[in-house]
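Researcher: Let's do a round of design. I'm pasting the structure tokens now; please hold your answer until I've finished.
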């Protein structure tokens, strides 16, 4: 695991941790590793046990035991509180003060979450979403139309993303206080692989149809569609005025968030891009083969102003007309395990143009890769 020290320099320390143990059943997805919001604790599912490691250093701090294979792990949005669930329906909550609460659901746990007010959310294989008080008292039981693999918390709503192991279905926008499904976010063709809350109480999704879509987080109304290539779009984020998505061709695709206009594409990985997330204004991408890269972009407003109102051009044609260049900085990180806990191996300095489709002309500069200083 690498971490910046705030100086803008490359990380200098490494934590090498064991890999997650796979669940040997087709009905469940292995629990992904998780890192606390404080950045100093990592949680890894190892069979029936959740192992908590201190960062940096990778020292084992404690374990959380279940009666069956661990199928879900999530930290709270602040602090180090954690909730985990297993195939036997067991749920364990460990609070910041060390308080340990044990719960039991009727089906194997597929997703869990901790809310800021202490409430606990648990989705299980029997399509129930249960809400518990901080002390473990059951508050609500909502029956869902599909099995859920992740729960994304907003200020007043919840987005539930259907599991890959079950039937295809749209993300669900849920009002927990009213105990009802507000809207089914229908529009994607095929599976939806990512859903996240973005500023303005909106939801951004990415799917198998190669599109990203922006939704009103209160009503579920579709606000904008961002059309990419014909292959899967694995994840998408909103950075200032741009939507940025990673697809199965290893490309990062950029759109104007307001108009949906395509800005440019950037080859990011040799394999499919599975994850895209933000650390400040940096973009961190994760490839299928385990490589992680960090990108630092120019101000998104400058890119949009330069590119949004020009017709798409092939990159080579654009380069012949380009009179200036935008700086795009990259750090490459090579994963040490399947959990993307990684080390920095350095960047590459190049003045060579990046191949791929673009929307550049003489007023729309082309990106180049330079090392981070």
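Researcher: That's everything. Go ahead.
Model: Designed sequence:
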């Amino acid at each position: 695991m690498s971490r910046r020290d705030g100086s803008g320099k490359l990380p200098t320390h490494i934590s090498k941790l064991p890999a997650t143990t796979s669940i040997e059943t087709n009905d469940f997805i292995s629990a992904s590793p998780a890192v606390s919001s404080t950045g100093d604790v990592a949680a890894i599912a190892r069979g029936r046990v959740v192992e908590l490691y201190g960062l940096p250093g990778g020292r084992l701090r404690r374990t959380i035991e279940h009666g069956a294979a661990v199928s879900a792990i999530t930290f709270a949005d602040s602090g180090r509180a954690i909730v985990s669930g297993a195939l036997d329906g067991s749920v364990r909550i460990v609070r910041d003060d060390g308080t340990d609460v044990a719960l039991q659901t009727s089906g194997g746990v597929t997703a869990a979450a901790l809310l800021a007010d202490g409430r606990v959310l648990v989705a299980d294989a029997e399509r129930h979403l249960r809400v518990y008080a901080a002390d473990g008292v059951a508050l609500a039981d909502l029956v869902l139309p599909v099995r859920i693999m992740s729960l994304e918390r907003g200020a007043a709503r919840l987005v539930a993303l259907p599991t890959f192991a079950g039937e295809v279905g749209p993300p669900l926008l849920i009002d927990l206080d009213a105990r009802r499904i507000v809207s089914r976010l229908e529009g994607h063709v095929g599976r939806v692989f990512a859903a996240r809350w973005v500023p303005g109480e909106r939801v951004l999704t990415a799917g198998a149809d190669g599109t990203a879509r922006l939704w009103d987080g209160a009503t579920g109304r579709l606000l904008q569609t961002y059309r990419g290539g014909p292959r899967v779009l694995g994840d998408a984020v909103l950075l200032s005025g741009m939507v940025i998505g990673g697809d199965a061709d290893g490309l990062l695709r950029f759109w104007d968030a307001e108009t949906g206009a395509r800005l440019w594409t950037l080859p990011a990985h040799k394999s499919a891009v599975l994850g895209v997330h933000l650390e400040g204004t940096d973009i961190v991408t994760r490839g299928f083969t385990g490589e992680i890269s960090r990108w630092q972009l120019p101000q998104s407003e400058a890119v949009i102003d330069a590119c949004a109102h020009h017709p798409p051009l092939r990159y080579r044609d654009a380069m012949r007309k380009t009179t200036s260049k935008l700086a795009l900085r990259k750090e490459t990180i090579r994963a040490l395990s399947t959990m993307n806990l990684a080390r920095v191996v350095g960047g590459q300095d190049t003045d060579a143009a990046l191949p791929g489709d673009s929307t550049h002309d003489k007023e729309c500069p082309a990106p180049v890769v330079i090392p981070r200083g």
